[in-house]
Amino acid sequence: MTKFFGNLHMVLVVGLLLAIAVMFGAHADMVTVSAVFRWLHLFFGIVWIGLLYYFNFVQIPTMPKIPAELKPAVGKHIAPSALFFFRWGAAFTVLTGLVVAHLSGYLHQALALQEPFRLIGIGMWLALIMAFNVWFVIWPAQKKALGIVAADDATKAAAATRAMIFSRTNTLLSLAMLYAMVNANHG
């Protein structure tokens, strides 16, 4: 049992098989490409926003309390791994969300903020801004701050501050984005 649960890939494969069994076992007649993409959108969104909240609620506030000799473990091992899933969670959340909107026939109206798709459109634009921040501000800054790319100490400090500010910006935007996403179809 420990061997199984100690293997994340195996747990994910069995979890995926279980999800497929539930999809087809409970509502085989309702399983559509759109439904699968909605499920993927939710999964990737949880990965993305879950890690955003981990960084902002746990890692950033805790780092000043960690003894100096232990900080390299976070910076060299935990943060790069978490940032990998964070940025790809963002990319796949946006991609699957755009696919869902396209398959559902409201992509252009939502992006143009036309009624009755204005609320989902607001959520989509907030998510696009947040994903842009992840890939083009936070990740490049974190590469410097964590020493993944060469930078002097002053550049690393400035990059860490920049990453934190944009991560907090995404946390701020996420609250409205989540409201828009959850309530767009429930007016």
From TrEMBL:
UniProt superkingdom: Bacteria
Write out the transmembrane intervals: 38-55, 85-107, 119-138
The residues covered by the Urate oxidase N-terminal domain are 120-184
Keyword set, alphabetical order: Membrane, Transmembrane, Transmembrane helix
Q: Which residues form a coiled coil?
A: none
Which Pfam families is this protein grouped with? Urate_ox_N
Protein name as catalogued: Urate oxidase N-terminal domain-containing protein
